[in-house]
Hints:
By secondary structure, the protein is mostly helical. It has helices spanning 2-10, 17-50, 54-90, 94-122, 126-129, 134-149, 151-166, 171-194, 198-223, 240-271, 276-312, 316-343, 345-352, 356-369, 373-388, 393-418, 420-443.
Amino acid sequence: MKSDLLARMRNGDSLSLKEQLRLIISLSVPPVLAQLSSILMTFIDASMVGHLGEREGAAIGLVASSTWLIWGLSFSCTMGFTVQISHLIGAGKNEEARNLVKVSALVNSALAVFLTLSVAGISPFVPLWLGSTEAIYEDSRLYFLIFALSIPIIQFNCLAGGALQASGEMKMPSAMQILMAVLNVVLNYVFIYLLDMGVKGAAVATLIARFLTTVPLIFFLLYKCEILRLRSGEKICFKKSYFSTAVKIGVPTAFEQCIMTGGQVAFTKIVSPLGQTALSANSFAITAESLCYMPSYGLAAAATTITGQCYGSGQKELTRRFGWITTLTGMVFMALTGTLMFIFARQMIGLISPEPSVIELGAKILMIEAFCEPLYGASLIASGAMRGTGDTFVPSCFKFFSMWMVRIPLALFLRGIYGLEGVWAAMSFELCVRGILFLIRLWGRGWVK
């Protein structure tokens, strides 16, 4: 049913509102379930580390935002190609889409080596730059170094998963994400507790789980995917337009990832002087909050696939309509999850940390954040819809403005008055500003030109 609806959409057939909703749901459910399971497992993962002690939780929390920055760069390196793949499929150019998969694999291999060597080289200094204390420095350094060694795996996981999603294949990437989350928890138990490796064990467990799920994902892309699998006789062909378009899409995306995750690094730096309890509460609250917003990434993935193929087939008005339907669906969903987060804030933090002071502070900041969830969801899903059309420059400017002109200055100001609660109030306000900017952009027509 899903493939039939996508084929009809690409061919220019008229889809009823019911069929449009059915297509969105069919594409959204697998990644949403994958994100939910992944976050539940991350929740358990954080709980396992958190129960080792406040020091271990702070060690991982210190470099968490830096790992997001590197992951974001890997994602950006692949996005410039996967968006083009969805456009080619939408235009019915499947053979050229397969050629682009091979080209992107070679390019991303070189980029993965460069990123790995660079990040491993700075791993001893990152905890110090973020204000690490002597008590948590060694754990933070080792955790970040092991993460650096997993960058090639992350790169190809992003590429294979993104290419499959661009073709409309959501089940396999989602299944592997669920499996990775489960493996991560199982391996955490082995390395953290049975082998008594602590924080280092958590990093090793994640690396192995990523590897064991990325290999079958690549195999499925190359040999099983109906549209993108390898065909005999099809030679690789390089075109200048592949690289110029990839740069046009990927550079703003990389800039966006740098400003957002760089902002998270700065945000962690703002929190660090508040003490170990505040650092742990901040880290655990971010993990708890992700239960609410990460499913929106599933809807954003569906939005990227639909708008990408729709845009590639030349149907711009239908592209706008799908952007709005997916975004409004996500806002309703986020309103419900935000309400639940407000009600059960204390219980959510209590599942991760046994420390009363961490639970008390973590619950307070979660309740502050709950009010901005619908607009946060709007920014996430609208960004995914715009990404499908290759519109990445203006969204990156929005995020730069909201993060560096609103969140960071306001957090610095409110930290001295209200502590961690003030810092999270600044973040909540900024997410509302960001959501409004994206809704304004979605209302216009510039993102489908």
